[in-house]
Specification:
Layout: E1 4-9, E2 14-15, H1 16-35, H2 43-58, E3 79-85, E4 89-91, E5 93-94, E6 99-103, E7 114-117, H3 130-139, E8 145-149, H4 152-158, E9 166-167, H5 174-180, E10 185-186, E11 192-195, E12 204-208, H6 212-226, H7 228-238, H8 253-258, H9 266-274, H10 282-289, H11 293-304, H12 308-326, H13 331-337, H14 343-354, H15 358-366, H16 383-388, E13 394-395
Parallel strand pairs: 1-3, 1-7, 2-5, 3-6, 7-8, 8-12, 9-10, 11-13
Antiparallel strand pairs: 4-6, 11-12
Helix pairs in contact: 1-6, 1-7, 6-7, 10-11, 12-15
Length: 396
């Protein structure tokens, strides 16, 4: 089995982390396979890939094949990656760290397993690079699958690859994507979407949200290629969760409230987060803010963009999500501590918001944690940060 060639077709003003996240995930999968972390999964494939593709990768104009540190660089286990741009050479990225790229036209005769287009800032002042759009349109049909991270979806859409398909991008740019490309069925909520298309010749296209969603996407690609065990070990090595429940709209309620910033309710939001067990009615919050209930409700909506009740619900749900992901506390205790009052209310809130029961949510979040009692090392991520960066389930 030859190593799968992953090509990152990048544009000027590349958002560096949109490419670095998936690159790191593929690298961690290499480490997991080489170390046999996947309970033997992929080991034979890894050996075959190294034998079949080593010489080719080593003589291929110095393109780096992924390999174990200290091992021969020209013996890829499963993947080899190329970062390429229209002109090649050193490319300035956003926010400024330069990267060295190959010329895209040097890949025209090479097989491409997976084509990934990372994101760039998109607005009226930064038009899409027409040469990159043309290259994607010309070369995408020969790739097994085509992917985008964040606003890389704009390039896929411009190349006509998303027409009639369901696609996502960063929640902040979803409306612009839908407006500029009306033939694309934009869904702003999922962390990523896999669209297999329909009809003769339709290929598989994956689109994802921003930055860390690129890691979620890469883990799903690894799972598709090498199996769940290898993908899980790659996630553990990255110290991230294999799959995240929810959607982009579930970015941190606390941070969303603070984003109203500079407003008169910053201190109130901090107080609310610290007193979730209490009665947080409009009357109580208005008293805290030293306003009449009517004035408070009106000014709050004007400043924050939603009602006080919705903020309270979101803060409670986020606190419960963190408690489930980070502890084994009983549901009854979590329900009381987070202001739901009862387990039944907690269950209803989770089913309504995430479509899963609280214990299912806990199982998904803690599935990437190796219990120290089982001889492993407990790993995880800060759930607050994770949720703030669009916690979501892989849409398959």
């Amino acid at each position: 089995m030859s190593a799968r060639h992953i090509v990152f077709a990048v544009a000027p003003d590349l958002v560096l982390l949109d490419a670095c996240g998936p690159l790191e995930a593929f690298w961690r999968a290499e480490l997991a396979m080489a170390a046999g972390d996947g309970n033997g999964a992929g080991n034979a494939a890894g050996n075959d890939a190294g034998n079949d593709a080593g010489n080719d990768a080593g003589s291929n104009n110095g393109r780096r094949a992924l390999s174990m540190p200290g091992a021969p660089r020209a013996r890829p286990v499963a993947y080899r990656t190329t970062v390429a741009s229209v002109e090649g050479g050193v490319l300035q990225t956003f926010p400024g760290l330069p990267v060295v790229t190959e010329r895209l036209d040097s890949l025209d005769a090479e097989p491409i397993d997976t084509l990934i287009v990372p994101g760039v800032p998109v607005d009226e002042h930064r038009p899409l690079q027409p040469e990159l759009v043309a290259w994607i349109r010309r070369n995408a049909p020969r790739a097994r699958r085509v992917c985008s991270v964040c606003t890389g979806a704009f390039y896929l859409a411009a190349a006509g690859l998303l027409d009639g398909r369901r696609a996502t991008t960063h929640w902040r740019d979803a409306a612009q994507l839908a407006r500029r490309f009306p033939n694309v069925h934009v869904d702003a909520d999922p962390i990523f979407i896999r669209d297999a298309g329909s009809g003769a010749g339709a290929g598989v296209v994956w689109t994802s949200a921003g930055v860390t969603a690129g890691i979620d996407l890469a883990l799903a690609l690894i799972e598709e290629d090498l199996g769940h065990a290898v993908a899980m070990q790659a996630a553990r090595r990255l110290v991230v969760f294999m799959k995240r429940p929810g959607g982009q709209s579930q970015f941190s309620a606390a941070l969303a409230a603070q984003a109203s910033a500079g407003g008169p309710f910053d201190a109130l939001h901090s107080w609310m987060a610290a007193h979730l067990r209490e009665d947080l009615t409009v009357e109580r919050l208005a008293e805290r803010a030293r306003m009449t209930p009517r004035t408070f409700a009106r000014r709050y909506v004007d400043e924050v963009g939603r009602t006080p009740a919705k903020t309270v619900s979101a803060l409670r749900l986020e606190a419960a999500s963190r408690a489930l992901a980070e502890s084994r506390r009983p549901l009854k205790r979590i329900a009381l501590d987070c202001g739901f009052g009862s387990e039944q209310n907690l269950r209803r809130a989770f089913v309504r918001r995430f479509g899963v029961l609280p214990l299912e949510y806990r199982e998904r979040f803690m599935s990437a944690v190796t219990s120290s009692a089982a001889g492993g090392v407990a790993v995880g991520v800060d759930a607050g940060v994770d949720l703030a960066d669009r916690a979501g389930v892989a849409a398959r």
